[in-house]
Structure formats: structure tokens, C-alpha cells
Specification:
Number of strands: 10
Strand content: 15-25%
CATH superfamily: NADP-dependent oxidoreductase domain
Largest sheet: 8 strands, parallel, barrel
Order of helices and strands: EEEHEHEHEHEHEHEHHEHH
Strand order of the largest sheet: 3-4-5-6-7-8-9-10
Bound molecules: NADP nicotinamide-adenine-dinucleotide phosphate
Number of domains: 1
Radius of gyration: 18 Å
């Protein structure tokens, strides 16, 4: 595992962050014991950075339980997912603190741009709550590079991180969001590096997810994207040769070799996935490796922004 400072002056975080949308039940039913064991296995394998959100079903509660007495040295990140006014923001933060059983959150992120109230009001309220000790650092997620720049300026350079969608399959964020953030001293912590399990190679065309799994009807598994994901998987498989890692781990490591990416947020459902994903943080790829892989997959990756505009205050559980 490698550790880096998040943004210009943020906390020191592991390059693998445990994403807890699956642990909350967002990707199908999960046994609480598997969820808790996945959290503990991640920490035991060097992960000090954990990501959750207001809208991740039971995730904050499970983290709260799993981390009792273990929070020292961890960097806990959550998100404000849905709000209509500034008092909703305070309530959401208080709920998150209660669920997580903590006095403060290390990194609090705005889950996505919302027009229901001016973003300036949201930032002002958040900075006020930060000064009262509710959280330490401010981040954003799913913001465009223009939105990041404008809100960072408005906040007086108080934004330390951005959380964009990014993988070897979905590369839109490398065009502007990640490099522009980097120029501002804002670290990118990228989500869905395994393309929600597609790059593990286990899903074949025609696969149907359970209705309670966010991947049911999700754009990642629509025909065009799925075929591209499988082609990339096959190319990576062949490229790996004698190397001592698998396609999932290579996909994760590939994201970490993009300038400006501080951590890859990997969703793990059980200890085996957690350990495997943590190990991906140690893979060293040379510039030559990256160039070779990029050459092979250049025309297969998707560069346009296909993530639809996400949840609003009225649809708190629609996942991007
Ligand atoms: N800011 C946002 O709007 C946003 C959006 C999405 C995600 N996120 C964050 O980013 C995290 C990661 O994204 P994600 O969970 O959507 O996708 P992901 O990390 O790309 O994929 C996670 C899924 O892949 C499968 N998987 C994980 N590790 C594996 C392994 N080692 N081998 C084989 N399969 C494996 C698991 O599902 P199966 O085993 O069932 O296939 C798991 O649920 C989330 O948990 C969340 O914290 C943020």
C-alpha cells in the first residue's frame, strides 16, 4: 500500500480507499458479517481511507459498528447526498455523525452538484459547520472541472478533493476533471475503478442482476459498454502474462497511474475482494507498461460523459 497527501494540505491517505456502497446493500443483499469482515480486512491490509455517503443505505451504520474503537489513524469520508435548504445540511451531517458513531468526519463531500439551492449557500453553510468541528476537510464529487474551479475559488481554496467516475473503461474524467483539479492542488479520488465488477470478467452479455442491485438497468451493463468492458478485460488478461496479479487488480492499478489520482475507491463485498483490492495498491507499472496498455485499448474505452445527471432532493436513492 502507498500513502499520499490528499490535495495540497489534506490527510495522508492510502491509495486504495474502501468504497462502501456495496457494503450498504447497494449492489444486492449482503450479509452484515461479510460487510464487517470486508472493512476489517481492508484495514488489516493497509487501507486507512473509507468512503461512504448519506444515501448508501445501511453503509454508515455498518461502518460505525465495524470501526468502534478502531477509528484512530483512519480517514473517514462521507457525503451530503440530498438537501433542499441549509437546515437539511446540518441535519444530514448530524445523522451521519450519529450513524458513524464519531464526533467528526475527516472528509465531507458534496455528493453532486444540485440546483435546488445555490451551491454558494451550500458551501457557506458547510464551512460554518466545519468551523464548529463537524468535519475537517471539504470535498466535492461528480462536479465538472468548471464547477470545481468556481466553487474552490468561492470557498477560498478550501476544497481538497474531487471524486469523479473513472476507470480504464470510462475515461471521460482524464480529459479535464482530473488534470484541472491537479493544477488547483485538489486530489482526485476516483470511483468505480472496476466498472462496478465488469472489469473482473465475471459478467457476460445477457447477465441479469437482481432488482435490488443498482446494476440492474445500469448504463455500465448496457450492450455497448458491456462489450467494450469485456474486450478490455480480454486484452488485460493477455497483457498480464507472467505478472503476479489479476485483471481486476490491473484495472485498479491502471487508474492509480494517472497523474492527479490520489486514490482509487474500490467497492468490496467480502474479505477476499477487500484483500485483493488492497493489494492492487502495491502494483508498480512503468510508463512503458501504461503506454503499451493504452495503445491496446485506445479505441475501446469510452470518453464521453455517460453518467446521467444524478439524484435530486426528490430522488435520494438514484445512484449514478
Ligand atoms: N460519488 C459517487 O457518485 C459514487 C458513485 C459510485 C461509487 N462511488 C464510490 O466508489 C466506490 C466504488 O465504486 P463501485 O462500488 O460503484 O464500483 P467498483 O469498485 O468498480 O466495483 C465494485 C463491485 O465489483 C465487484 N468486485 C469488487 N472487488 C472485486 C474483486 N477483487 N474481484 C471481483 N469482483 C470484485 C463487487 O461486486 P460483485 O462481486 O457483486 O460483482 C463490487 O460490489 C463505491 O462503493 C462508493 O464508495 C461513488
Amino acid at each position: 500500500m502507498k500513502y499520499n497527501i490528499l490535495g495540497n494540505n489534506g490527510p495522508k491517505v492510502s491509495n486504495i480507499c474502501l468504497g462502501t456502497w456495496p457494503i450498504g446493500g447497494g449492489m444486492g443483499k449482503i450479509e452484515q458479517k461479510d460487510a464487517i469482515n470486508a472493512i476489517h480486512a481492508s484495514i488489516d491490509n493497509g487501507v486507512n481511507f473509507l468512503d461512504t455517503a448519506q444515501m448508501y443505505f445501511d453503509s454508515e451504520n455498518i461502518l460505525g459498528k465495524a470501526l468502534k474503537g478502531k477509528k484512530e489513524n483512519l480517514v473517514l469520508a462521507s457525503k451530503l447526498s440530498s438537501w433542499r435548504n441549509t437546515s437539511d445540511i446540518e441535519k444530514a451531517l448530524e445523522n451521519s455523525l450519529r450513524n458513524l458513531q464519531t464526533d467528526f468526519i475527516d472528509l465531507y463531500q458534496i455528493h453532486s452538484w444540485q440546483d435546488s439551492i445555490p451551491m454558494e449557500e451550500t458551501i457557506t453553510k458547510l464551512l460554518d459547520l466545519r468551523s464548529k468541528g463537524y468535519f475537517k476537510y471539504l470535498g466535492v464529487s461528480n462536479f465538472s472541472s468548471k464547477q470545481i474551479k468556481a466553487m474552490n475559488e468561492f470557498s477560498g481554496n478550501q476544497i481538497i478533493s474531487s471524486q469523479p467516475h473513472f476507470s480504464i473503461l470510462f475515461r471521460h474524467s482524464e480529459i479535464e476533471i482530473i488534470p484541472e483539479s491537479n493544477k488547483l492542488g485538489i486530489g482526485s479520488i476516483v470511483y468505480s475503478p472496476i466498472a462496478r465488477g465488469l472489469l473482473s470478467g465475471k459478467y457476460k452479455p445477457g447477465h441479469i442482476f437482481d432488482k435490488n442491485d443498482a446494476r440492474y438497468n445500469h448504463h455500465t451493463f448496457q450492450k455497448n459498454q458491456m462489450e467494450r468492458g469485456i474486450r478490455i478485460y480480454n486484452i488485460l488478461s493477455e497483457w498480464i502474462g507472467d505478472n503476479n496479479y489479476n485483471e481486476t487488480q490491473l484495472s485498479i492499478a491502471w487508474t492509480l497511474h494517472t497523474n492527479g489520482v490520489t486514490s482509487a475507491i474500490c467497492g468490496s463485498k467480502n474479505p477476499e475482494q477487500a484483500v485483493s483490492n488492497a493489494k492492487a495498491g502495491c502494483i508498480n507499472l512503468t510508463q512503458e507498461d501504461i503506454s503499451e496498455i493504452n495503445k491496446l485499448i485506445k479505441d475501446i474505452s469510452v470518453y464521453e460523459l455517460i453518467t446521467p445527471k444524478r439524484f435530486s432532493a426528490n430522488q435520494p436513492h438514484t445512484h449514478p
